[in-house]
Design a protein that fits this description.
Helix 1 runs parallel beside helix 3, helix 2 packs antiparallel against helix 7 and helix 3 packs antiparallel against helix 5. The chain contains seven helices and 13 strands. It is about 35% helix and about 30% strand. The strands form two sheets. Strands 1, 2, 3, 4, 6, 7, 8, 9, 11, 12 and 13 form an eleven-stranded mixed β-sheet that branches. A two-stranded antiparallel ribbon has the order 5-10. It has about 325 residues and is an alpha+beta fold. The longest helix has about 30 residues. The protein is elongated.
Length: about 325
């Protein structure tokens, strides 16, 4: 909106006929409505068809170059073909002049066109960096009564005021023990390619200070088939545990995973194991599912679960409300 107002104000500077100024203003309004409608509908259509990753990429990297390019086109058409200086011969826009550019291009038009091209190039060149670094999904550990543990997508995370605390008492027999497991709530709506590493942010502690070996097992689970889960990856850590819940999460950087594709309709499971030497009685604790004890696993890439889909009609409705209230501006 602001860019279009500035472009319109600059374009109408000078001694031009009233008729050509009205035509220029109407053209600006038409371009503004058309481009903003495209900017909102394109990512919404991508979401409807399940291309969540591309919808985010379009919104973050291509929407602004699209607006700049439309302003460049508007500015060039207005200053080169529509605006008529007072005292000059009145005439309509000739098709050959538009196609061949006989009237030339102004310095201001050239500057904004070059700016749009430069910005578009930067956006396209950032695709690899965006996919490798920025495109990550934090799956939050949550709990529901009576005894349901699960992982939630960022769009569905609902943290409580007080943390939930899981505990496990050792048996006195040394060995590896599975403490807890969490499944992604809702199957995947598109294939998820896991490539990179998983970072864990957890609030682990023990009844007495102790260094404990932990393992995080990642499984591929097919809820629709009677088949055992497929183990995809294991991260191993030696974690120094304190006697009380830590004020900040313990940050654990996992190893690079072997590239793996979770198929549509499958889900992701995280199982947490600990090795206990059995030398003394211990209780292992895990705080999560609260605003001050937010434990989560940061996965590489974009994970899209089934519960994202019901939000799409609401997002489109919100966009249309934004158009009505703000005269065309909306956001996703």
């Amino acid at each position: 909106m602001l860019l279009m107002i500035i472009a319109l104000a600059i374009a109408l500077q000078g001694r031009y006929t009233a008729e050509s100024k009205v035509k220029t203003a109407l053209l600006g309004l038409e371009i503004f409505i058309a481009v903003n409608t495209m900017r909102m509908l394109i990512p919404c259509l991508m979401l409807v068809h399940g291309h969540y990753r591309w919808a985010i990429f379009f919104h973050n990297h291509l929407a602004t170059p699209l607006i700049l390019a439309s302003i460049a086109l508007y500015w060039h058409l207005s200053t080169s073909y529509i605006l008529q200086p007072k005292g000059s011969e009145e005439g309509g826009l000739r098709l050959m002049e538009l196609l061949t550019g006989r009237r030339g291009i102004g310095l201001a038009s050239m500057a904004i066109i070059l700016l749009a091209i430069l910005y578009s190039g930067v956006g396209l060149l950032s695709t690899t960096v965006y996919a490798a670094e920025s495109d990550r999904t934090a799956l939050t550990f949550e709990f529901a009564r009576p005894d349901f543990r699960y992982l939630t997508h960022p769009d569905w995370t609902d943290l409580g005021e007080r943390p939930h605390t899981d505990e496990w008492k050792n048996t006195g027999t040394p060995g590896w023990y599975k403490l807890w497991e969490f499944d992604l709530y809702g199957p995947l709506v598109e294939d998820y390619r896991m490539k990179g590493n998983i970072n864990y942010y957890v609030y682990f502690y023990c009844s007495r200070p102790h260094k404990a070996p932990y393992e995080f097992h990642i499984y591929d689970v097919d809820p629709s088939a009677d088949t055992p889960p497929v183990e995809v990856h294991v991260d191993r850590f030696i974690i120094p545990l304190e006697a009380g819940s830590p004020p900040d999460p313990i940050k654990l950087k996992g190893e690079e995973v072997r590239p793996y594709v979770f198929r549509e309709g499958h889900t992701i499971r995280i199982a947490i194991y600990v090795y206990d030497d059995g030398h003394e009685k211990r209780v292992y604790y895990f705080d999560y599912d609260s605003k001050d004890k937010h434990s989560y696993a940061d996965f590489p890439g974009m994970v899209v679960d089934e519960r994202l889909l019901p939000s799409i009609p609401l997002a489109i409705a919100a966009l249309m409300i934004g158009v009505r209230r703000n005269g065309g501006e909306g956001s996703i």
